[in-house]
Amino acid sequence: MPYCEVDRYQNGEKWDGVRLFYRRYGRGAVKVLLVIGLAGTHDSWGPQIKGLTGSLEPADDEAEAERTDEESGDAASPAAAEGEDDGGEGDGIEVCCFDNRGVGRSSIPPHKSYYSTAIMARDALALMDHLGWKKAHVFGHSMGAMISCKLAAMAPQRVCSLALLNVTGGGFQCFPKVDGQMLSLAFRFLRAKTPEERALVDLETHYTEEYLNEKVGSCTRRTILYQEYVKGISSTGMQSNCGFEGQVNACWTHKMTSKELDTIRSAGFLVSVIHGRSDIIAQLCHARRLAERLIPVARMVELHGAHLVSHERPEEVNNALMELIKATKSMMKPEEWSSQPENSSETGALISARPVSVTIQTDDGGNAAVAVYNLLAKLQLSFLYVIGVILMGFEHMRNIVKVMKPSKINSATGNQR
């Protein structure tokens, strides 16, 4: 099985022997690193792997043999290592996806202090070193998009382009849209102890009801996806508590500073921010704001779909990713990338360099809505904080009750049962 020993590539830094499980697909000079989100495993990228490489058959064995040869002295061509087109490999695309620390077949450090988007970005860079990739197109989903942002700010020279799918910020921005449905889902998620219970919750948070209720043959997508989710969760096992809590900590503590965003803006690579309009996990407004802060290098692509828009609208997402790769190859200038006219496709994709913002111009030219919008945002964040504290308190009390549950004592023998 292909593993990356992170410690070997950390320049003296030690991360307690963390190993990352990864898979490679396709062959080509164009390198793409896919970074998955919270509680997700590498195979969650299936539709994009298929769309980018044309195959779901791993190429790990052959690639591992080549990497061993390179370490023995038979180095690959500089162009291939740089992630640029090379005559020997043609115009193909090679994709690598992996399990983040804390989930799947990768190591699960026991304490949440071993998890942050910065640490996990260094994991991804170590994997690129392990693969012999000097540069790659870096595409991330949800928490993986947060990690990708950190990677791009840490090592902009390693990034060919950056795609952020269903991204949000850290801290309070991590809280989903709050309504009755979301509170019910959060409660059920905390109580989910089996693959079947977890699958039911995941489906409702990942897809729109419209998509789940579509007929596929004699049954609905919901039925088919439920079976696939149960099988997938059962094969890798339920994520451990310390892995889940660590990854949640990474999301909660994530923050992109103005300096880091300036680094990304000035690095010269193109950015695509892709989001589902019906996402209840990562709210669209936060993705729009991030795209605005990355102008002129960023383009916003809004699609009809929910948090897993990459699965719900794979063709549109893959087209957007391929367009990003092609624009990078043609050395399109950031100004050209972000200044292309807004348009709407037949599939419902809205492409805009400047995300739609909520503004109301008053007669005297002032922006009256800004103050109101900011106030509402602060009120929402305060409400989200209270809800989060309540949920965490509920779970904490439930654990205390379990620990303090009195033991039954046999009065005759005095033995505990």
From TrEMBL:
<dbReference type="Pfam" id="PF00561">
    <property type="entry name" value="Abhydrolase_1"/>
</dbReference>
<feature type="domain" description="AB hydrolase-1">
    <location>
        <begin position="92"/>
        <end position="313"/>
    </location>
</feature>
<dbReference type="InterPro" id="IPR050471">
    <property type="entry name" value="AB_hydrolase"/>
</dbReference>
<protein>
    <recommendedName>
        <fullName>AB hydrolase-1 domain-containing protein</fullName>
    </recommendedName>
</protein>
<dbReference type="InterPro" id="IPR000639">
    <property type="entry name" value="Epox_hydrolase-like"/>
</dbReference>
<feature type="region of interest" description="Disordered">
    <location>
        <begin position="49"/>
        <end position="90"/>
    </location>
</feature>
<dbReference type="InterPro" id="IPR029058">
    <property type="entry name" value="AB_hydrolase_fold"/>
</dbReference>
<feature type="compositionally biased region" description="Acidic residues">
    <location>
        <begin position="58"/>
        <end position="73"/>
    </location>
</feature>
<dbReference type="InterPro" id="IPR000073">
    <property type="entry name" value="AB_hydrolase_1"/>
</dbReference>
<dbReference type="GO" id="GO:0003824">
    <property type="term" value="F:catalytic activity"/>
</dbReference>
